[in-house]
Amino acid sequence: MVFTMFTSASNIYAARSDADTLSETRAVAGCPDSSDGKHHMKSRGSCRAINVNTGEVLDGMGGQCRYCNMLIVTQYNLFLYPSQGMGKYTTRDAWGYVGDGFTIEVNSISYNSSHTNAVGKSFVWE
């Protein structure tokens, strides 16, 4: 297991990263720790994701699941407008609380145009 350190304006944290189990995905698995199987996302403000394979940068809204700590960065602000699609997005495991304004390194950035498809229904924006 490799631990990569990232910094945010308010803290320093580590994210898990195993090459064979890296958790940003095109299809998002349900939350293993919530009773309804959905990721209950809390806002972490403006955040950044960097695709280490292509150099693509996604500046958007960050969120963290209050149950499993999964991180997400979305192109659009679903905390204000939950009925729209995410646009570009990526997810990543984190093994604890992260502060506002985090930056994560990922292997892919995906796109989701609807809040009613399988990916969109995997999240509750609180």
Detailed description of the structure:
The chain starts with a strand and ends with a strand. The chain has no helices and nine strands. Strand 4 and strand 5 (71-74) form a beta hairpin. Strands 3, 4, 5, 6, 7, 8 and 9 form a seven-stranded mixed sheet that branches. Strands 1-2 form a two-stranded antiparallel ribbon. It is an all-beta fold.
Rg (CA only)? 13 Å
Oligomer: single chain
In DSSP terms (H or I, runs of 4 or more residues), the helix count works out at: 0
**Shape by Cα distribution:** globular
Arithmetic mean of pLDDT? 82
Biggest sheet architecture = 7 strands, mixed
Helix-residue proportion: under 10%
Distance between the termini: 31 Å
Low-confidence stretches: 1-25
Beta-strand content = 35-45%
Count of DSSP strands: 9
Judged by helices, strands and strand pairing, the structural class is mainly beta
Please trace the helix and strand order, writing H or E for each element: EEEEEEEEE
Briefly, what is this?
By secondary structure, the chain is an all-beta fold. A hairpin with a 5-residue loop joins β4 and β5.
Provide tags for this entry.
single chain, 126 residues, mainly beta, seven-stranded mixed β-sheet, two-stranded antiparallel ribbon, globular, disordered N terminus
